[in-house]
Amino acid sequence: MAKYLLLIYGDEQLWQARTPEEIKDLNAGHAAFVAAAGDAVLGGHELEPSTTATSLRGTVSGRPTPTDGTFLETKEVLGGYYLVEAPDLDAAIALAERLPEVSAAHSGVEIRPVREAS
Amino acid sequence: MTGHERGPAADVDVNEAVAQAHRREWARVLAATVRVVRDLDLAEECAQDAYARALRTWSTTGVPDRPGAWLTTVARNRAKDLLRRESVLRSALPSLVVDDVVAGPDDHADPPVVDDDRLRLIFTCCHPALSRDAQVALTLRLVCGLSTAEVARAFLVQESAMAARITRAKKKISAARIPYRVPARTDLPERVSAVLDVVHLVFTTGYTAPAGAQLVRQYLVDGAIHLARTLYQLLPGDGQVAGLLALMLLTDARRNTRLSGTGELVLLADQDRTRWDTRLIAEGTALVARSLGQAQTGYGVQAAIAAVHAEAATWEDTDWTEIVGLYDVLRRLWPSPVVELNRAVAIGFRDGPQAGLDALAPLLDEPALATYGYLSATRADFLRRLRRRQEATAAYEEALAMTDNQVERAFLAGRLEEVRTHSA
């Protein structure tokens, strides 16, 4: 078994413009995902908006200064994640396909294998 | 004279037998070894080792009856030895995910259509999680057994860059755990079509090299056809596989007539049809019928178009109405500006150059064709036939600026010279 991080990206403006009805559907979609994935889900959370992000940019000398904002300035931002366990990439893709964000044109999921401790 | 005799003649036989076994059996030997060792690099090493040993051993023992089986056994034994010796060291490394029972996460009831090591290897190399460049490089290197230098040459990339591309792709296969598996039945059509796109790309790259002095790189053409034959043998019921194989055979049947004795490009219209390979045409035409009997697919319809050309005894006999009709089907299956361009060419031959030019008009500001030399070349040809020589001159110049293949350049330059002389 291997672990994968499913990183949910999307257009934050569109996320914030959601109606209560759409948010209800989304939550139901995630509940269905977790129910279907069962033990495969090791953890996961929705994140606060990217406007709440603070970045520490690495520096070779001195203490880094915390700055406001995400590490990368992109239109699509990280909105949440799941840590899942799957036997291989095909299985991880099959899990990720069940996420509600995969069926909206402005959002999607990046699947990153977690490096095994050696 | 048998293969068991020694001496210089026998050595030649052995070299040839090993070379032939490399062409025919490389994928089988490697694929079977990968399944045992669960590591692409190690399996490659062991397969190469087996071929080296064959060169030494076969000159003494003679060529075995089943060279592929011999090579596979030697490669797998070598791999098992190495694994035993390095078991402590290797256990920490990530390995290839190999499962003997093939299934998706929740469809254990959906076994693959065929289980074959070569198919596993092909599907792994062409996994959609790899970039198209990586898919092609891995397929040529691992399935066709080309050297990294040959793969690099085919795509005009430095050998070191190609080596890095292959290493990166292998690293992704192991780190992301791309499985060594034939996809489940439900995923098969989509996965097969990704594989066929790779095979077709290899073929077209070989058939008209993107640059250089040679028009054709036959080793790529042969590699693509061999791959398609393997796929057809394993998936005979798949219409698109039969279609692509047919398309490539019918195209390759013209191989000896595409260049003149002095190396100039000869157009379909001017080719000596008596020198087309009738055996390939017969095989290709039969496959077209099979393919279209199973389903109408893009490759099958393209092959049907090639078959119409193959069946015409002369250029004048070409059934352009049939060809335009097939392009009408093709544009529904595969909407693409390139298909529209080819349809316009066919209309030009059916209804004359003005009709062709009219059919071409909507494509002129198509961004996907902005740097596509064949669009300018086609327009130039229609204008030439309409004797609009100044416009033809400009169009030939444009086409020339867009190809680096020297044989094609020579052809276009010749036409340019012709329209220039006449318009002066």
Structure in words:
The complex is a heterodimer of chains A (118) and B (424). By secondary structure, chain A is of the alpha+beta class. In chain A, 26% of the residues lie in helices and 33% in strands. Chain A is built from 3 helices and 6 strands; from the N terminus they run βααββββαβ. Chain A has helices at 12-16, 20-37, 89-96; strands at residues 2-11, 41-46, 54-56, 66-68, 76-86, 108-113. In chain A, the strands form 2 sheets. Chain A has a 4-stranded antiparallel sheet. Chain A has a two-stranded antiparallel sheet with strand order 3-4. Chain B is mainly α. Helix content of chain B is 67%, strand content 1%. Chain B is built from 19 helices and 2 strands. Chain B has a two-stranded parallel ribbon. In chain B, α1 (8-37) crosses α3 (67-85), α6 packs across α8 (159-175) and α9 (188-207) runs parallel beside α11 (239-252). The N and C termini of chain B lie far apart (68 Å). The model of chain B is unreliable at 1-7 and 101-108 (pLDDT under 50). The A-B interface holds A 2, 86-95, 111, 113, 115-116, 118 and B 92-94, 97, 99, 104-106, 127, 129, 175-179, 181, 183.
What would the keywords be for this entry?
heterodimer; A: four-stranded antiparallel sheet; two-stranded antiparallel ribbon; 6 strands; 26% helix; B: 424 residues; mainly alpha; 67% helix
Structural class by sheet pairing and helices of chain A: alpha+beta
Straight-line N-to-C gap of chain B:
68 Å
- Helices of chain A, by number, come to 3
The largest interface is: A-B, 16 and 17 residues
> Low-confidence spans of chain A: pLDDT under 50, at least 5 residues?
none
Outline the fold blueprint.
The complex is a heterodimer of chains A (118) and B (424).
Chain A: E1 2-11, H1 12-16, H2 20-37, E2 41-46, E3 54-56, E4 66-68, E5 76-86, H3 89-96, E6 108-113
Antiparallel strand pairs in A: 1-5, 1-6, 2-5, 3-4
Chain B: H1 8-37, H2 40-61, H3 67-85, H4 87-90, H5 117-125, H6 132-143, H7 148-154, H8 159-175, H9 188-207, E1 211-212, H10 218-234, H11 239-252, H12 278-294, H13 298-311, H14 320-333, H15 337-351, H16 353-360, H17 373-385, H18 389-401, E2 404-405, H19 406-423
Parallel strand pairs in B: 1-2
